[in-house]
Write a structure and sequence with these properties.
- The structure is a homodimer.
- Chain A is built from 11 helices and 3 strands, in the order ααβααββααααααα.
- Chain A is mainly alpha-helical.
- Chain A folds into 2 domains: 83 residues, Arc Repressor Mutant, subunit A, CATH 1.10.10.10; 143 residues, GntR ligand-binding domain-like (Four Helix Bundle (Hemerythrin (Met), subunit A)), CATH 1.20.120.530.
- A 3-stranded antiparallel sheet of chain A has the order 1-3-2.
- In chain A, helix 8 runs antiparallel to helix 9.
- Chain A is globular and about 55 Å long.
- The N terminus of chain A is likely disordered.
- The structure holds a DNA duplex.
- Chains A, B: It comes from Sneathiella sedimenti.
- Chains A, B: This is GntR family transcriptional regulator.
- Chains A, B: Keywords: DNA-binding, Transcription, Transcription regulation.
Chain lengths: 232, 232
DNA sequence: GCCTAAAATATTGTTGACAATATTATCGGC
DNA sequence: GCCGATAATATTGTCAACAATATTTTAGGC
């Protein structure tokens, strides 16, 4: 868990540039292409192509595929090859269920472990500027803020085990969030919900924060159900 | 996620014998040795040794190590080798936290998805015979029953995503459960708690089942805190 | 023109050899 | 005898060639 997850974490937080081995770089880049739909679900990916493109041996590509498979981002069929995993409506709903309890736990632990002032920066970030940005459909700004929120919470929660599980589903959550954001009204609702959660966290009310976070995911689930014809 | 997890699941449920590729067999056997403390935490494991012992090439061993690392069972230090991951007290407590919410979700979904008679066999299993076995410290019987409970619930929950996350922590949970069972009084308490959960599930009361399951894990956590000097 | 069989091609799976790195043993100086 | 430098060994990291398998193309019969 430890080493690889640390590598992954720094990637997630500090952007696409990342250190580590050739294999790690490959994993990061492929991950990026998959979640940005540059490689849409069902795409076949050939070991040779990537090997040439990145100037590494096929063995590295193979190792990367192994990791990506373990993470559920690609599917490997023996002697046939690897394809980007398809995201079915069912699995989206499943994802909401686990997000609800895991992210709820995340904010509860984070609240318990911190002093009120820990949240000042984040509360500032989720202020008037961001609200205006959300109203103007500046999704990149909102996505970045959400990523920051997540990252800060995970750190405060201080549980490597929880972090590992959240990382496991991170890519799928990301792709889901990106889509859901397009639904008119969802982004601003999510924004207000995050404000509420942050207030509860600053007040040190862990139970309330957990409840609000769970409501946040539940309402996202509702929006998804309503609009899933457009989203899938 | 899909393919590999399916392989893993069948392994967990249907015992050490298992199909798949050389790599899969290796993963299973190493997993077994680690959770049974045949390879205690901190043990160094050499690629060559295993390659010879199993009569496979070092590449297969290498692949297996990659999977084991991803699952958090071993730690790989570049150019130094692989060692069995150490389990610290902190990580045990973390494990209880995530178990609480995930297994709570598991029984809630399982209850929602099933008819009362679905639980007949399991309620029978958690009957007078097993109670006597627990009183007589027949831990193997109890462990088997718990595994059955877990397996049946996961199937009923019907969420591949949840299953994947539970599988992720399964090995650590197992090693924790085995130890905790030795604490006088814990096993019989756990037994009664499972009876209560099963009753709630048969009654179709999903909320109650979830609450009881969470209490079950919380009480296990209490016992662990009290006796952790002996358990670690 | 269309279906089937077989050859040609492309792609993944596996291996053993070699390079890079870390660990251990040896030797000389003090 | 103890310490440090260097050589010897062991172990992991990487790769390119080869084998196994699947896919596509071609050829032939009807």
């Amino acid at each position: 868990m430890t080493k690889r997850n640390v590598t992954k974490l720094t990637t997630v937080t500090s952007g696409p540039k990342s250190g580590g081995s050739d294999t790690d770089r490959l994993v990061d880049e492929l991950r990026r292409r998959i979640v940005t739909n540059q490689m849409p679900p069902g795409s076949r990916i050939r070991e040779n192509e990537l090997s040439e493109e990145f100037g590494v041996s096929r063995s590295r590509v193979r190792d990367a595929f192994g990791i990506l498979e373990e993470r559920g981002l690609i599917e490997r069929i023996p002697n046939k090859g690897a394809v980007v995993m398809r995201l079915e409506a069912d699995s989206f709903l499943e994802l909401f269920d686990v997000r609800e309890v895991l992210e709820g736990l995340m904010v509860r632990l984070a609240t318990q472990n911190t002093e009120p002032e820990y949240w000042d920066d984040l509360i500032n970030l989720f202020g008037a500027d961001l609200e205006k940005a959300v109203e103007n459909n500046d999704f990149n700004a909102y996505m970045a803020a959400i990523a920051q929120f997540r990252q800060t919470c995970i750190e405060a929660a201080g549980s490597g085990t929880l972090r590992g599980l959240l990382d496991d589903i991170y890519d799928r959550v990301l792709s889901m969030t990106r889509r859901l954001m397009l639904v008119p009204g969802r982004a601003s609702e999510g924004f207000r919900q995050h404000q509420g959660i942050l207030r509860a966290m600053q007040e040190g009310d862990a139970e309330k924060a957990e409840r609000l976070k769970r409501e946040n995911i539940r309402s996202a689930r509702q929006w998804f159900l309503k609009y899933n014809d457009f989203l899938l």
